[in-house]
Specification:
homodimer, 251 residues, alpha/beta, putative 2-phosphosulfolactate phosphatase, 3-stranded parallel sheet
Chain lengths: 251, 251
């Protein structure tokens, strides 16, 4: 425990992310429940060594030429040249243990570019909620929740998870909330939590995945704590967080 | 009644406004409860003839030289050269009857610039909720709710009003909602509506106005239907809407 106050802020979409919203040092929590951050947690929980998030399919294609395993998706669909799509189920394969995967998605990985490379981005999803909460409180930095949204727009599933995480963090008395966005997310979480699947069934993205026949992963994406990992992106590479990763933030 | 379907969309802040979110023709509803849109409705309900929204204080100062009455505010404070501030109470004066007022505020009037001059912008607030609902349904165009927010950020009071208006519009079976933002706003409105003042007391902006000693206008801003008017901005000028204003949208 750092013993310090920790402020909490929330951007509903990358467009609303502001570098001056919180004083440094702060850590960003990237949220893309359907499906990137759920998939990243799943990959690390199943032994993947590292992931390289890339914004464009062109970059992903270059990495393919260099021999990397490529996971990619646009509008829910895997491009031909990719080895894996964007479903969490694709990242559970034993042959991926110890491997580095290059990953590009419609919304999730593009959010990294607004944050930049100098700020740690940890990966949040229902599947790692408790482990992430504990890690963030131990870490002690201010916390900026960043919802990937859908093509720049607000979406409910990411916002409801942001509220779940905010509510969970409030177990610690060092968490300070002065943000309307955080308050709204907690209220929406409280409305949704007793029947999460039904609440989120109405969302635009659930309906979109259903139309595409890709909604098989939704129940898994809404399960709690199946992946007790905290992946963190630092210098363009996602790895498992360790205590020593953030040691220098304590005086 | 137009008999057509009307789609409803919501941007939590001007940054999230997208010209392609709804098919034309659509009308924008500008929402800045504390305080611009409440003040504009109040001004028209008290006999003001027209208002000219301007984004910058420099523009407002030019109009001052040309002899106009100026209402302006930055961070809640009236600049020295302005005749009126931003409180709804300033617009209730009999001497303003029949006058044209130039108006510039921190958030409200700046939102006009993202919409542009070719789209009708109607003014929404709790004080004109019922009249506005009736007008929008009669009008028949798609409806884009635009919250002014606070310096580009999400705020709860504008969002809760957006939810109130969306819920009110749903009285009409021609209203179609497929937007996560609209759904979230309705959920927040349903949480807030039974004790609106208390719910909104926690917001950042209420706290800010309180610190500035400007919170006297909050109870008035949360009263329903005290101003049965629909002001509409068209070609850079706000006037009272009339039936003939939108007659050409009917075939």
């Amino acid at each position: 425990m750092s013993g310090k106050e920790q402020k909490l802020e929330l951007a509903f979409t990358p467009l609303l992310f502001r570098h001056d919203a919180l004083s440094a040092p702060y850590v960003v929590v990237l949220i893309d429940i359907l499906r990137a951050t759920t998939s990243i947690c799943t990959a690390f929980a199943h032994g993947v060594e590292a992931m390289i998030p890339v914004a464009s399919l062109e970059e992903a294609r270059h990495y393919k030429e260099w021999g990397y395993i490529i996971a990619a998706e646009r509008e829910g669909i895997k491009p031909d040249f990719a080895d894996l799509g964007n479903s969490a189920f694709h990242f559970m394969k034993p042959k991926l243990r110890g491997k580095t995967i290059v990953y590009s998605t419609t919304n999730g990985t593009q959010a990294f570019s607004v944050v930049g490379y100098t700020i740690d981005v940890v990966i949040g999803a229902f599947v790692n909620l408790s482990t992430l909460t504990k890690w963030l409180i131990e870490d002690g930095r201010n916390i900026y929740l960043l919802c990937a949204g859908w093509k720049g727009n607000f979406n409910l599933e990411d916002t409801v998870f942001a509220g779940a995480l905010a509510a969970s963090l409030m177990q610690s008395s060092q968490i300070i909330i002065q943000s309307d966005a955080v308050m709204a997310s907690i209220d929406l979480w409280n409305l949704a939590k007793n029947n999460l699947a039904e609440y989120l069934l109405k969302t635009e993205h659930s309906q979109r995945l259903k139309r595409l026949g890709l909604d098989d992963v939704i129940p898994y994406s809404l399960t709690f704590d199946t992946c007790p990992v905290v992946p963190v992106a630092r210098n363009g590479m996602i790895r498992l967080a360790t205590q020593t990763n953030h040691e220098h933030f304590y005086d």
